[in-house]
Design goal:
alpha+beta; 5-stranded mixed sheet; 5-stranded antiparallel sheet
């Protein structure tokens, strides 16, 4: 019985024999969603150890680094974990939510049937296709942001309106202010309910044509600023009729 347990354990850890001249393909796919910018430090600290553990299984390893966004192309191809991590350091995740399936299919074609495919993401995924493995780097983070800004005419004035949203499970208090012409306006505090949203608004000042709304920053800074532009009056074109 003990021998059976040992054999079963050995099979579960997926043993691989190191052969002279053997080559292993490892393809890491980085989730290109903007939220991954928060996890960059965890990726840079945790991914190298995982890759080096995988590369120790064979005499030679071929590494690929892909972005999950469509048409993002190869970020790295070589045999150096350090080289791959330099590509990670230069990588800029800025996409919206998207399906990583096409990138994983490309990764599997590069890795072959016996190679390893890693999806590096901060999203919760129950299943991954094509035998890919999940390399999770996400952790709960408090985040509030500007969900959108609109500008319209109301009562003879040009008014901007912004929706502030709390994406966290706890109430959050933030400061917001308006910048225009390089100058900051007064800072105002606002408390947002858990998973809640609240609208703020104000009128453009006389002669003010653009502004930047800012929210006090948190770990995810991509939604902490938004621009508002006063609509330009319609331009009439044409000429005066000429006498014949």
């Amino acid at each position: 019985q003990l021998l059976a347990v040992l054999i079963l354990t050995w099979l579960m850890v997926e043993p691989r024999w190191m052969e002279r001249g053997s080559v292993q393909q490892i393809v890491a796919v980085l989730d290109g969603s903007a939220s991954m910018s928060v996890s960059r430090a965890r990726i840079e600290s945790q991914l190298p150890a995982a890759l080096k553990q995988l590369t120790a299984a064979t005499a030679r390893t071929e590494l690929y680094l892909l972005d999950s966004r469509r048409d993002a192309g190869h970020l790295y191809h070589g045999d150096s974990v350090d080289g791959l991590m330099r590509a990670v350091a230069a990588w800029k995740p800025s996409g919206g939510m998207h399906d990583p399936g096409p990138a994983l299919r490309l990764a599997r074609s590069l890795a072959g049937r016996e190679g390893t495919v890693l999806l590096v993401t901060d999203h919760e995924l129950k299943e991954l296709p094509l035998g890919a493995r999940l390399f999770a780097v996400g952790e709960p983070e408090e985040n509030a942001g500007i969900a959108g800004v609109t500008v319209e005419e109301a009562g003879g004035r040009t008014v901007w309106r912004a929706m502030l949203r709390n994406y966290s499970a706890a109430p959050l208090t933030r400061e917001w202010w308006v910048e225009t012409g390089g100058a900051e306006g007064a800072h105002q505090k606002i408390t947002l309910a858990p998973q809640g949203a609240q609208q703020i608004q104000a009128a453009f000042a006389e002669g003010q044509n653009d502004l930047t709304l800012r929210l006090s920053p948190d770990t995810f800074t991509a939604d902490d600023a938004a621009a508002g532009l006063r609509p330009l009056p319609p331009q009439l074109t044409g000429g005066l009729p000429q006498d014949e």
